[in-house]
């Protein structure tokens, strides 16, 4: 299994890149969002990868974070969701957006991805709803792929063009805090997802306060 690739981008297409690793070129397919984040031709990049093996085909799919890779694995486990649909969903929503949509049962958000119909979107939400809490928590611990140890992969003169390292996820931290307060994973994930949607860019304390208000008994 090829789990990560570090090398120089030789070619960029609309949905894939050709990465040269010590003279061997790997075609790696990525979501629109990931493609937009990659450096230009001639620059060095590192991507987490998932290899799909079929009788007549070997395909590599690339991701900037382990969370994105894990969501891809989960999405493609849903009946009717192939790699193309998964990349469309991730490209449209991003990992945090997928987590929020599924935690809130918002299949309309999933349906916004190109090529994903209402039945598939509803199935994604239903099948993966129990996975949203753990994936939201994962957001606080994963690290983005970077172009490290390039001298060991290609010529020593190469200079990496790293993707910025993300800060700790406020959603993950808020989810952990609510869990420590005794709230169930499903309820906590739903509240944090709704709070994050209503307060884009909010820090952890703000998300916790907003989520607690949502979880407070009504009436």
UniProtKB/TrEMBL annotation:
Question: In which broad location class does this protein mainly occur, judging by the first location in its UniProt entry?
Answer: cytoplasm
Keyword Nucleotide-binding present in the record's keywords: the answer is: yes
* Positions of region (Domain III): 168-219
Which Gene3D superfamilies does the entry link to? 5' to 3' exonuclease, C-terminal subdomain, DNA helicase RuvA subunit, C-terminal domain, Nucleic acid-binding proteins
Subcellular location(s) per record: Cytoplasm
- What does UniProt say about this protein's domains? Has three domains with a flexible linker between the domains II and III and assumes an 'L' shape. Domain III is highly mobile and contacts RuvB.
HAMAP family, sorted: DNA_HJ_migration_RuvA
Q: How does it assemble?
A: Homotetramer. Forms an RuvA(8)-RuvB(12)-Holliday junction (HJ) complex. HJ DNA is sandwiched between 2 RuvA tetramers; dsDNA enters through RuvA and exits via RuvB. An RuvB hexamer assembles on each DNA strand where it exits the tetramer. Each RuvB hexamer is contacted by two RuvA subunits (via domain III) on 2 adjacent RuvB subunits; this complex drives branch migration. In the full resolvosome a probable DNA-RuvA(4)-RuvB(12)-RuvC(2) complex forms which resolves the HJ.
Q: What is this protein called?
A: Holliday junction branch migration complex subunit RuvA
Q: Which organism is it from?
A: Roseobacter fucihabitans
């Amino acid at each position: 299994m090829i789990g990560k690739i570090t090398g120089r981008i030789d070619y960029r297409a609309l949905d894939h890149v050709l990465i040269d690793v010590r003279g061997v070129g790997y075609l790696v397919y990525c979501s629109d969002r990931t493609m937009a984040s990659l450096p230009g031709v001639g620059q060095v990049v590192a991507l987490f990868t998932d290899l799909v093996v079929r009788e007549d085909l070997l395909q590599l799919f690339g991701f900037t974070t382990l969370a994105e890779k894990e969501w891809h694995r989960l999405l493609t486990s849903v009946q009717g969701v192939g790699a193309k649909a998964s990349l469309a969903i991730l490209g449209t929503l991003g990992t945090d957006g997928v987590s929020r949509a599924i935690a809130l049962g918002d299949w309309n958000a999933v349906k916004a991805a190109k090529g994903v119909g209402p039945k598939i979107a509803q199935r994604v939400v239903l099948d993966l709803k129990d996975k949203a809490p753990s994936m939201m928590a994962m957001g606080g611990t994963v690290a983005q792929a970077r172009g490290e140890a390039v001298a060991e992969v290609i010529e020593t003169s190469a200079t990496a063009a790293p993707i910025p390292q993300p800060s700790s996820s406020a959603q993950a931290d808020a989810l952990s805090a609510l869990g420590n307060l005794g709230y169930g994973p499903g309820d906590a994930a739903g509240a944090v997802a709704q709070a994050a949607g209503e307060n884009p860019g909010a820090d952890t304390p703000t998300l916790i306060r907003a989520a607690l208000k949502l979880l407070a008994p009504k009436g």
